[in-house]
Design a protein that fits this description.
The protein has 713 residues and is of the alpha/beta class. The protein has 3 domains: 3-281, 2-enoyl-CoA Hydratase, Chain A, domain 1; 319-493, 3-Layer(aba) Sandwich (Rossmann fold); 500-706, Orthogonal Bundle (N-(1-d-carboxylethyl)-l-norvaline Dehydrogenase, domain 2). Helices cover 51% and strands 13% of the residues. An 8-stranded mixed beta sheet has the order 13-12-11-14-15-16-17-18, with helices on both faces. A 7-stranded mixed beta sheet has the order 1-2-3-4-5-7-10, sandwiched between helices. Strand 14, helix 17 (404-417) and strand 15 (423-426) form a beta-alpha-beta unit. GO terms for molecular function: 3-hydroxybutyryl-CoA epimerase activity; delta(3)-delta(2)-enoyl-CoA isomerase activity; enoyl-CoA hydratase activity; long-chain (3S)-3-hydroxyacyl-CoA dehydrogenase (NAD+) activity; NAD+ binding. In the central section; belongs to the 3-hydroxyacyl-CoA dehydrogenase family. In the N-terminal section; belongs to the enoyl-CoA hydratase/isomerase family. It holds the Pfam family 3HCDH.
Length: 713
């Protein structure tokens, strides 16, 4: 044995050939601080080993290395000097691998992401098996590669390919990596180790010129000035268009590559280190790392629930076809749970099947699935008009019209048909689960399962616990949601639950401004371009459906009469009364149509300005943002204080995945804490005269006084 650590071991596997194997005690290999130290020590030992002819770098697991240990980031980045020291020291470890006096080969299986990819880049050769996924996803954390990725990747696959990989953070298959020259060979998983050994033997025997393979990574980038300039200009234009001003990491990646292009390794790495350190101090990085950690927390809860679930969902049913029912049925079938789709009308069943078919056809067109998979998914959906077709299922998802009386009757009928241990859930967006549970004889097996539209794209499912819902029911439903590929957030029952409850104060703040004469299109522009929402509140209302939004205001007003009273003269109520329902009928705040090329278009509707009496009153961007966001954040705080949601992190994830809250802001609680609790309270107090939704809670004031954090722990 040449070296033995807790996560790394090195030993000779044949004459002169050593294997450096990552074998962490946990489920995956990752570069935490201890592993990086072991990596350095192992490489030092190798460099001093006599009769060494070559090294293969392998993993004992089904995945190579998933990257750095992100759980350490927020602590590391809290101190600037500590961050500088860490990244400089850590990146030097990868130089040690690159500087070994013998040829090196990385044997890549499963995920090789971030630092895992950078370890492979530091080797002379890379062989991957067909399961490999390779990439540098650091921009998704508001960062750039910090262990030499911006320096080595352009020198291996060319600056144009490298810029695309790094600025998008996309993952790449082994075959795609081979096409651009990152991987030297792709083999079957069972042949990976032998393939790596074969390459290192050839290099050690002089049949392959490994030193010539290594040298370009040590030298300035081999690209002529014109080519490099054009590549950088193109990349800057694409990043400006796609990432915009709110995401500094892709811009910093281009700058680091540009600054290091004409330098040897040491100076190129210095440019990368400086850019990386600068990004660690940005709000965007703090927010996006926070998202990752919150997501891990939520997924951890889902895994725990799945282990606790006493009932496995093997066959499901959806009541109510149409677009939503068809979407739910598709998602269940696509993820391997056969589903019965029941409705009382054949045309609704046809619509539901057509919805599933449309989604699948697009996947076939994009090459994501083949026709065999399409046929398998469709055959897993059984459309029916018959009640008895659902009697043997494990779970029934009720997705009929959003009317409590109708839902109650459907739920009661369902309970009379299915087995006594079948779970029944309602895909309601606002109606109280406890109210609906009164229709059932056994409410312990009932809860809410709120999907978001379009189901196949939106990652969130709210699992709503009623006062009589059993823990077993919640666990089984969370497990089913996870199997469907969804992120489940468990919330307690209240009108609107979590996401819609906090959305309506936001829309109310918007509507109040429109009622005062402020241009709705101008509000949308500020909330999209400056705050970062994927769509502004007027456009969102059109997409949700003005009639739907108006109906929901009645539900919210019933639950929170003093804070969310229904105003029949509000903009949304007026549009609903005028039959302007939004995208569904082509007219809402905006008019919708098709241009000459068949592309959908939206235009400001002049008649709406006249209908709503919009005078063109002007507000600053900061005021527009405050009047929309203060009510939403206040309602999030109330939901946490009332135990509607278990943690601030889960609330952040719910709004990110359910509403598209801007990722660079990290969610409502991250946004609140980035602003500072004292500053937020001062801002909210300046608008308190506008109504209760602008008034902060005593709990928030107490948090500010005590200097506590909602996101601590």
């Amino acid at each position: 044995m040449i070296y033995q650590g807790d996560s790394i071991q090195v030993e000779f596997v044949e004459d002169g050939i050593a294997e450096l194997q990552f074998a962490a005690a946990g489920s995956v290999n990752k570069f935490d601080q201890k592993t990086l130290e072991e990596f350095s020590n192992a490489l030092t030992k190798l460099a001093d080993t006599d009769k060494l002819r070559g090294v293969i770098v392998t993993s004992s697991k089904s995945t190579f290395i998933v990257g750095a240990d992100i759980t350490e980031f927020l602590t590391l980045f809290a101190d600037l000097d500590q961050t500088k020291t860490w990244v400089a020291k850590a990146s030097r470890v990868f130089d040690q691998l690159e500087d070994l006096p013998v040829p090196t080969v990385a044997a890549v299986t499963g995920f090789a992401l971030g630092g895992g990819c950078e370890a492979a880049l530091a080797c002379d050769y890379r062989v991957a098996d067909t399961t490999a996924t390779i990439g540098l996803p650091e921009v998704k954390l508001g960062l750039i590669p910090g262990f030499g990725g911006t320096m080595r990747l352009p020198r291996i696959i060319g600056p144009d390919n490298a810029l695309e990989w790094i600025t998008t953070g996309k993952n790449n298959s082994a075959v795609d990596a081979q096409k651009v020259g990152l991987v030297d060979a792709v083999v079957a998983p069972e042949k990976l180790r032998e393939a790596a050994l074969a390459i290192v033997r050839q290099a050690a025997d002089g049949e392959l010129d490994w030193q010539a393979k290594r040298q370009p990574k040590l030298d300035p980038l081999q690209a002529n000035d014109t080519e490099l300039t054009m590549t950088l200009v193109t990349a800057k234009g694409m990043v400006a268009a796609q990432a915009g001003k709110h995401y500094p990491a892709p811009h910093a990646a281009i700058k680091a590559i540009e600054q290091g292009a004409r330098e040897h390794r040491e100076k190129a790495l210095k440019a990368e280190n400086e850019a990386f350190v600068g990004l660690t101090q940005t709000d965007a990085c703090q927010a996006m790392v926070g998202i990752f950690l919150a997501d891990q927390q939520v997924k951890g809860k889902a895994k725990k629930a799945a282990k606790q679930a006493t009932k496995e969902i093997k066959r499901a049913a959806v009541l109510g076809a149409g677009i939503m029912g068809g979407g739910i049925a598709y998602q269940s079938a696509y993820k391997g749970v056969p589903v019965v789709m029941k409705d009382i009308r054949q045309d609704a069943l046809d619509l539901g099947m057509n919805e599933a078919s449309k989604i699948l056809d697009k996947l076939v067109e994009r090459g994501k699935i083949d026709n065999k998979k399409l046929a398998k998914v469709l055959s897993s959906i059984t459309p029916t008009l018959l009640d008895e077709s659902i009697k043997d299922v494990d779970i029934v998802v009720e997705a009929v019209v959003e009317n409590p009386d109708v839902k109650g009757k459907v739920l009661a009928q369902t309970e009379s048909v299915v087995d006594k241990d079948a779970i029944i859930v309602s895909n309601t967006s606002t109606i109280s689960i406890d109210r609906l549970a009164k229709s059932l004889k056994d409410p312990s097996r009932f809860c809410g399962m709120h999907f978001f539209n379009p189901v196949h794209k939106m990652p969130l499912v709210e699992v709503i616990r009623g006062k009589d819902t059993s823990d077993e029911t919640v666990a089984a439903v969370v497990a089913y949601a996870a199997r469907m590929g969804k992120t489940a957030i468990v919330v307690n029952d209240c009108p609107g639950f979590l996401v819609n409850r906090v959305l309506f104060p936001y829309l109310a703040g918007f509507s109040q401004m429109v009622d005062e004469g402020v241009d709705f299109a101008g509000i949308d522009k500020v909330m999209e371009k400056q705050f970062g929402w994927p769509m502004g509140p007027a456009y969102l209302s059109d997409v949700v459906g003005i009639d739907t939004a108006d109906h929901c205001t009645e539900v919210m007003a019933e639950g929170f009469p003093s804070r969310m009273p229904r105003d029949k003269s509000s903009a949304i109520a007026k549009l609903a009364e005028a039959g302007r329902y939004g995208q569904k009928n082509g007219k809402g705040f905006y008019n919708y149509g098709i241009d000459k090329k068949g592309r959908p278009v939206k235009e400001k509707a002049p008649e709406v300005y006249e209908m709503l009496g919009i005078s063109g009153k002007e507000l600053s961007a900061d005021e527009i943002i405050a009047r929309c966001m203060v009510p939403m954040v206040n309602e999030c705080v109330r939901c946490l204080e009332e135990d509607i949601v278990a943690s601030a992190a889960e609330c952040d994830i719910a709004l990110l995945y359910g509403l598209g809250f801007p990722p660079f802001r990290g969610g409502p609680f991250r946004y609140l804490e980035t602003m500072g609790l004292d500053k937020f309270i001062e801002l909210a107090d300046s608008y308190a005269h506008l109504g209760e939704m602008y008034q902060v809670t005593d709990g928030l004031r107490d948090m500010a006084k005590s200097g506590k954090s909602y996101l601590a722990g």
